[in-house]
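Final paragraph of the annual report: two paired records, presented back to back.
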Amino acid sequence: MRVFRAALIMLTLLMLSMAVLPVFGLDLVLFGRFGLEAANVDDSNIHLFMVRSAAFATLATFAINFLRRRRPLSSVAPLLFFCSWTLIFQPAYLVAHHEIHLQHIIFYLFTLFLVLILSRENKAEAKKIFVNEW
């Protein structure tokens, strides 16, 4: 079990670094030639990098929660974590690599609205998850 926990900790650190490094202009490449390269973030792929960072941060969050023996109490929790990480990474990428346009503000407000709805659903579902338990 210690080997599994150590491997999961190393994988979590790898996912966190792969989520954060592109904000600073670096990209960790694991296939082909292994190493750090300059992240090519431009208009055509900025949303791809945002989603990628939010996905890796979500996976790392659930890995940390698994190591702490905290399980999600609702099926909405993964969506809530992903949208919350998107709210963090979108402004970070826009400040670091791009200028802010109206479409980015609309996307941010939509994601914020989605987070509010999902957090309300998460609380409601967590309260009733064990109601019909035998």
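The closing record of the year follows.
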Amino acid sequence: MTEAERLARMSDAVRTLLECLGEDVSREGLVKTPQRMAKALLACTAGYHETVESVVKDALFECTSEEMVVVRDIDCFSMCEHHVLPWFGKVHIAYLPAGRVLGLSKLARLTDMYAKRLQIQERFTQQIAEAVQAATGALGVAVRADCTHMCMTMRGVEKPGAITTTSHFTGAFRGGDASAALRVEFLLRTGGGVVATPAGAAALLMPPAAVGGGVAGVAPPASLPVAACTAGSDPDSGRAGDSCSSCHAADGSVAPVAAASGCR
């Protein structure tokens, strides 16, 4: 089917939909709507005609660094495959290079490629992670998406402000204490924050070996933003508050996640 034939068939289908809604497709405001909507749908689903190879091309470069590369707040706009209504938000991508790095714009282009299809957010997030993994051969990839879905805000349950968060991890980001530490760093670097937990649980999230540099690229710098401590400590005072027990052990030591956040 040629592009012109596809456009003609889609325009006829839109005209039928408008008529079924009770509209007069001959009135001034709707005369060109069938063709406009058809073109808009084709533009919004252009990702079907792209591949990882066609997007990445030769934008891979040798690099000896194994530190985490993070690109955050990538805008994404897609359409729900269940209702063909928009959903949109932000995507955050991180990976651990294994001898090669990917041109930064390609992370945004891969995001667009998968967004410009009829999608569900869960699959979208996984596809981006797997594409970055395949393209770079990275030691591990982490992807998080935070999105609003019009199918649950303007219809159905009608809950404006509801945000859906999905994530997918590969390689070094999956399984084991070191992987948990990497996931914590990823959340910190992408604004995900760390929920205050008892010292024991926090230690599981950020094992001491990782904080001490036992795993390359794990220890997050103290300047990274985290949610304010709600247990009574004063991060600026240099010591724990009297009622602070979530981050501080009985001997005065600081849980690794709290230490990484600047809480002393």
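The first strand starts at residue 60 and ends at 62. This concludes the annual technical report; the extension proposal builds directly on these records.
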